[in-house]
Write a structure and sequence with these properties.
With 70 residues, this protein is an all-alpha fold. The protein contains three helices and no strands. Helices cover 50% and strands 0% of the residues. The longest helix is centred in the C-terminal third of the chain and has 14 residues, at 46-59.
Length: 70
Amino acid sequence: MVTAILIAAAVRSPGSTTGTIRSDGRWDNWAAGVDLFEETVRLLTEDEKIALELDAEAMRPAPTPHTDSS
């Protein structure tokens, strides 16, 4: 449900920089949200799916380097 809400926010205001959404998941983790959005709101266009996939991958936090404390 959370990813469906994030998708709704993203397609409602594409290109908006007023907020930051973070995700530690990959695009395939968003499949259930895409399905829920498309069942309850409308089908996403292919362009929207591509843009959302790129956004979801870009939202992933950068891995923190492991430091050895020995």
